[in-house]
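Project standup — Tuesday

K.O.: blocked on the structure for the chain from last sprint. Re-posting the sequence here as requested.
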Amino acid sequence: MCSSDLSTGSLAYGYALTPSWRATASNATAFRVPTLYQRFSSYGSSALTAETSNNQELGLRWLSGPHRASLVAYQNEIRNLIDFVSVANNCASPDGCYANVGHARLSGITLAGGTQWGLVHVSASMDWMDPRNLDTQKQLARRPHQQATVSAHTMVRGWQMGAEIQSAGERYDDASNTSRLAPYTLIHLSASHALDRDWQMRFKVNNLTNQDYTLAKGYATPGRSFFLILTWTPQR
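H.V.: unblocked you, prediction finished:
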């Protein structure tokens, strides 16, 4: 059952140290109710309760023309985290189920930035985090300690060309930290072109190198995939 008196609030402050540098701080509360799938599917539990959290964040941001960078440290304390756990938690399914983690903490640092390099805009972000079940001191299931994204896009003869690299470190498939999931790196490419005022054509190639990777054991992930997308957006 989900409580009807859940409420949230936030307090944030930013201070310009110089025209280019800005410091920020925030504190906020939040909640998330379980979905119908998490409660009533074969992997669900009708006893799930809403998770509540208190989130603190400190940040330092730099901006100069087309160049930007940021460093953010965060800590999220979560009660009754809705997470996928192993059969050791009395799940009805032999593959595991959703359950509430009594006390969890997500803490880490995010480094991000972007710049214009000639005609190419480049951006990147890197996360170092500690997703921790504080009741067992185990790493939370399916959450890596490191993950990163690098992207670039440019215009070539009316075509918007883009590339993105996504990487995630090693993680565990279960709450008991006995089943490892290997790290992976994916490369995606895209190109889009406006055919006229209302129509746009887009090509996409996902997982360019046909990387074999797993997000959750027992579930297939797509290999190299090609897409052709036509979008119609009528203009006034």
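K.O.: great, moving the ticket to review. The helical segments are 36-40. The chain has a mean pLDDT of 91.
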